[in-house]
Amino acid sequence: MGVGVSIFFLTLGAILRFAIEPDVLGEDVHIDVIGLIFMIVGAVGIVLSVVLAPKRGQTSDDRLMHRENTPPDA
What residue stretches are annotated with the DUF6458 domain (predicted)? Predict the structure, then answer.
């Protein structure tokens, strides 16, 4: 999940949590709890994207360096 998708989940969760009345879909569906879950998923996604981004960039650089240092097949 990228940063953009995470921001989308965070925004959607905030809208469901704070902008919509909790009983709009009836008493059986707790829309505010669903919004809170989306906000948590979005926040975790942003944290994971930031933490894993340097590792992702490092592996692509390593592959590029390996490709440049490998002699061409004759």
Answer: 1-66
**Residue whose tokens read 């902008």:** 19
pTM of the model: 0.68
In three-state form (DSSP H/G/I as H, E/B as E, the rest C), the secondary structure along the chain is CCHHHHHHHHHHHHHHHHHCCCCCCCCCCCHHHHHHHHHHHHHHHHHHHHHHHHHHHHHHHHHHHHHHHCCCCC
Between CA 10 and CA 7 the distance in angstroms is 5
pLDDT of amino acid 62: 56
